[in-house]
Amino acid sequence: MGVDxxxxxxxxxxxxxxxxxxxxxxxxxxxxxxYDLSQLGAITxxxxxxxxxxxxxxxxxxxxxxGMLNAIGLQNDGIDSLINEKMPFLRQYDVPVIVNVVGHxxxxxxxVASRLxxxxxxxxxxxxxxxxxxxxxxxxxxxxxxxTAEVVRGVRAATGLTLITKLSPNVTDIVSIAQAAVDxxxxxxxxxxxxxxxAIDPWARKFRLANVTGGLSGPAVKPVALRMVYEVARxxxxxxxxxxxxxxxxxxxxxxxxxxxxIAVGTANFVNPMAxxxxxxxIEEYLTKMGFASVDDIVGTVS
Amino acid sequence: xxxIPYSMKGIYDCELIEQSEVSxxxxxxxxxxxxIARSVxxxxxxxxxxxxxxxxxxxxxxxxxxxxxxxxxxxxxYVVIGRGTRLFQRxxxxxxxxxxGPLGTGFDLGDQPHTEHIVVAGGCGAAPLHFLCDALCExxxxxxxxxxxxxxxxxxxxxxxEFRSHGVDIEVATDDASYGYGGFVTGLLSEVIGQRKGNESxxxxxxxxxxxxxxxxxxxxxxxxxxNCQVSLENNMACGIGVCTGCVQKIKAPHTQQGWEYKRVCxxxxxxxxxxxxxx
Lengths: 303, 280
What we know:
heterodimer; A: alpha/beta; TIM Barrel; 8-stranded parallel beta sheet; globular; B: alpha/beta; Elongation Factor Tu (Ef-tu), domain 3; Rossmann fold; Dihydroorotate dehydrogenase B (pyrk subunit), domain 3; 7-stranded mixed beta sheet; 6-stranded antiparallel β-barrel; about 20% helix; disordered N terminus
C-alpha cells in the first residue's frame, strides 16, 4: 500500500497536498497541454473580479536575482466569463477548484462570493485581501486586522463554501492578521502573497515596471515565506496552505513540516510547467523513503 | 476521462547538435527535438532554459529559424545581447537543454493563390522570417516572394545568403548605406509597394524587427491598403505559455468600452495583424 497523500483544507478534500498559486496557472486551459489537471490536489485559478479588469500598463514583469517582480494588475475577464467559459472546461477534470476573489470594495467581494456560492465544481474561495479599498483611500484591506476581518466577515455571510484568506506578507505582524481572519470565519489561510518590491534600470534611471512597484516571487522569497508560515501555523487552529518560492519537493516538505497542511506551486510553473506534478511525485517518494504513512504525519513536525 | 486535445506542445530535453557563430555576435543553435521540429509553424517560438540555476530564473524565448522534420531538428538564430543569450551561447554541442515548445501563434500564410508575399526583416527579426520563407515557398512557390532585409550596416543584415539560396527575390537596405538601398528598410518597402501601384490588394506583408520599424511597416501597409500585414512582436515574457499575462500588447477590441484590450504576446501572438495593434 502506498502512502496517504490526501489532506483536507476546510471542507476541501485534496487527493494530495499540492495546489497552484493563483495567477501562475491561468484558468487551467494552457496547463492542460502539459498534463492531466486531475493529478493536482486542487486548482487555484487566477484572481476573479465582478467586472473585467484590464490590468496594468506594460512592462509588467521583470526578472530579479532568483526571482521576478510582477505588476499584472489582476487582469481578468470577470465573474461571468469564469462561470460561463472557464468553469465548464475545469469541470471536465476530477479536481477541486478554488477561485481567488479580488475586489476594489467590500461590496464587490461580497457579490462575487455570493454569485459563486452555488456554481458547480467550485470547492472554495481564496480571498485576496491584498487589493486596495478604492472607497477608503486605497488602503489595502489586508494590511490591518480590522480591514482583513471586514472582508472575511462579509464574504463569510455570503457563502457556505470553504473560505481561505490569502495573507499579504507586507505587514508588521502577520500573526495578528491571521488571527483576525480566523476569528472572522476563515476556514483556512494561505500565505504568502508576493513581497512588494521594485527594480530600476541604472543607465536609463527608470523604473523597470510601468507600475513602479510589483510583487516579488520565486526562490528569493522562500526563507521569508517559510518563517511566516511557521509563525502563523503555530498560532492558529485552521489549516494553512504554504507558498512562496517552492521549486522542488524538498521545498514543499520544508513548508509542510513548518506547519502547512498543503502547499502551492507558483512561479515554478513558469520555469517548469510540470513542476506541480513533479513535486507531488517527490513528496510521495519522500514519505515512502522516510517511512511515514501520510502527509498529516509530518505537518508541523519541525523542531 | 476528460477529453484532452492532442498537442505536441511539451517540455523536451533537446540535445544541442550545433552552436556556431555565423557572424560577429550572431549565433546559430541547432537542437534535436523531433516533436518540436515536426509540429512547429513559422512564427512560433520555443522557451529555452539557459541555466540550470535559479539565477537567472526564467527561460528565454527564441523564435524558430528553421525546422528539419526529417532529421527531427530545429534551429534558433540569435544575437548575443544580454545575460540570457550569453549563457545560451556558452552551452556546447552535445549538451542537453530543456526546451518548452512549440509556443505561440505564428504567421497566417494566406489562402489565395496569385498573391505576392513581401517579407520585411529588421536585424535579428530575420530569424522567424527565414522559417516563414521556407513555408511560403513550399505553399506558394518561391517566385511569389520578395524579401526586404534591413540592418544598421551590412553586418547587421542577417540570413541574406540563406534567403538567396531559397531562390526568392531579395533586396537589402542598410541604415548607414554601406550596402544595398541606403536608408531604413521601411523606405525600401515604400518604394517596392509604389512599384506595384494598382496591385496593392494582392499583396501580403510579413514583418519582424525593432518595434519602431514594425510600427512604420504597419503605417505604410495601412496607407497603401495592402491585403494583409502581419507583425511578430516582442515583449518581456515570464512564462511564455500564456498563464502569467505579463507580456501583453494593446490590441483593438471594438466590443470593449475603451476599444482595446490587452492580449498576450506569447499566446495570442507573437504574430498579430498590424491593423489590430495599438501602436504607441
